[in-house]
Structures are given as structure tokens and as C-alpha cells.
Amino acid sequence: MYWTDYHHHTNNSFDSKAVMDEVCAKAVEKGIDEICFTEHFSVNPKAPTYGHMDFSKYISDIQHAKSKWQDNLKIKMGIELCEPHLMKDKYKEALDGIEFDFILGSIHNIQEEKLRKYLFDKENHAAYLGYFEEVLKLVTNADIDVLAHFDLLKRYAMAKIGNYNVKDMEEIIRHVLHQAIKRDIGLEINTSGFASQSVGEAFPRIELLKLYKQMGGEILTIGSDSHRVETVGNYFIEALKMAKEAGFSFIYTFDKRKPEPIRMDDFIL
């Protein structure tokens, strides 16, 4: 089995204390074959992420890890961009000359409000519709490879307003998927939702994966979104089962931002 984790954070992200070398050691211990680190980054001074990233340290950490673990673990350098459809010129300037293998795009804030605050006075339909409309802007305009945790809002919404009704949101979701497919932007199965008692499912729901496949989508990555050493690679098998159930034959890795398929027949579940 070729085990991948294409969404992991370390202390190069503002919300993690994990040390990259320790993450790699745990990944090797678990039998993970390939990991892509995807540290948070934002150019918006009002975003919580802003100001933490030191690219020279991050690149140095990656180079050291690649050298130390080259015989046991394939290591890729990625980034998770916060609202990359906004301030595009600033993102382009900040990232110029850095060779990433993989770029995730995500929505953590809407109109400069964290998602928890965005939810404050909204009922279910309006909250999710507004969120997916922002996701549509992202996939229409941003320079990314994969959309991270498509329906992330449910992490904060479940306890307050519940999950969304797929049928109610189908029109806007189809618009998002159409743009993603048109621009060769993939989806990830983000397994962090499995670990949440209130969520209890991946990001996105399997219905969205099935719709993505039906519409012609192919590029699919799996990521734990782990911010801790011990949870690297969590729920990989569950994600593979979701992918198979949704009709996919491949999952993808990336090299210098080029997608590389791995046939799922190679996995033993």
C-alpha cells in the first residue's frame, strides 16, 4: 500500500507546535510513504496566519528532512494559502521564486471574519450558501492545485446550525465543481473531520465526491490536516474507502505542481 498524507502542518504554521523532523519520524514509524507539508500562509495583515511564516526556515526544514529521511519517506514542500483569490498581486509577489510541489487553497475567513464569527447571526441556508459562494470565488480566481476541506464551515456550524442539505446547496456546489474541473483544480479528502465528535465525517461529504466524479473530476488527494506529530496520516484507509465508493480509480500526489496519479488497485484495503 502506498500511504500518502498531503496536508500536514508543523511549527512553520501559526497554529502548530509540531517539529518537522518528529513528524517525519512518526510517519516512517507508521509506514507512510509520502508526505507533503502544507503550512498556512496569508498576505492579509488581518488574518491570524499573517506574519508567522519564515520561508527561509521552512525551506531549510524541508531540505534537512529530505536529506535525513530520503531512504524511508518521500517529502514534498507545499503551502496552504488563506483566501488566495484575494490580494492576488501580493500573493504572487510573496511567493515569487519559491518552488512548491503543491498549493492548497482554503477559506478560513469571509469578509475578514473568522468562520465562527461569520456564523454568529446566520441560519443554516444563508450561512452555507454564503460560504460556498466564497469558495466559488476562490476556485474561479486563485492559482492553486487543490481546494482544501471543501465544506469546512460545518466544523464550526454543526453544534450551532447543523450540517447542510446537499440538495439545497446543489446548484452552488455544482458551480464550484464546474470551475474546479475547468481549471484543473482538484479536491482533497480531508480526514480531520473524522476525529471531531461534532462533525464525524470527512471534508467534504461523500455526496460531493460522487458529484465531482459524475461531473468529470479526477484529481483527488488525501490529507490528515494534522497539526500534531502523533496524528500524521490519520484515517487514510477511511479516505481510500470513500474515494472508491465515490467511483475514483486514482488518488494523486504532486511534484513541482504537476499531478501524478496512483492507481487505487495498488492499495489493499
UniProtKB/TrEMBL annotation:
Pathway: Amino-acid biosynthesis; L-histidine biosynthesis; L-histidine from 5-phospho-alpha-D-ribose 1-diphosphate: step 8/9. SUPFAM superfamilies: PHP domain-like (SSF89550). It catalyses: L-histidinol phosphate + H2O = L-histidinol + phosphate. One of its GO terms (biological process) is L-histidine biosynthetic process. It comes from the Bacteria. GO terms for cellular component: cytoplasm. Its EC number is 3.1.3.15. Residues 5-192 form the PHP domain. It holds the Pfam family PHP. PANTHER family: HISTIDINOL PHOSPHATASE-RELATED, HISTIDINOL-PHOSPHATASE. Belongs to the PHP hydrolase family. HisK subfamily. This is Histidinol-phosphatase.
